[in-house]
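re: ur question from earlier - yeah i can do the single chain one, its not a big deal. heres the input i used so u can compare w yours
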Amino acid sequence: MRTRGRVHNLKAFPKTKIVAAPTATFDISESLLLGQRASVSRYVPSLARFGAGSKIIVGRFAIHTGFRLIVGEGAEFRLGSGYFSHGVQILCNCQIVIGDHCMFGPDVIIRDDDGHEIIGAVQQAPIIIGDDVWVGARAIILKGVTIGDGAIIAAGAVVTTDVPPRAIAGGVPARVIRENVSHRG
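and the output i got, formated as tokens:
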């Protein structure tokens, strides 16, 4: 993999395939671990694809085995610190920004793009996830959403609208269940 920019401590674990366009840029200030596994599990195929002109900016993040990460041409993917558990799927064709101290359960899906055109609708919009956010297993976060600092997204939730800071959101579509909460990560 050829990279431009600053790359420190990028580690790909077994069964992780990385495809990066020559013009994709990486700025990893601490570490990016791709395909890591828990001690009781095994490695399963994982894929990271970084398109032409994409920008990947990372503090310290781990993405566990079984993931699919696609950063499209000219898109920006920014990670602060935290981890994605196994089986995450991320499609970034516009911009996804994730803050510090964030935790994502297994099989989470994050998409800033519909993947197809719907006449009269916006096809893609940025996703902003604040600091200290906890996202439960199998939650889905869709285009144009902002999730505030300290928010909790319940397992199985489908987030289609903004979630305020320090709120719990759950359901399909997700709605605020409780406000002024805190959690330990």
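Residues 89 and 109 are 5 Å apart (CA to CA). not sure if urs matches, ping me
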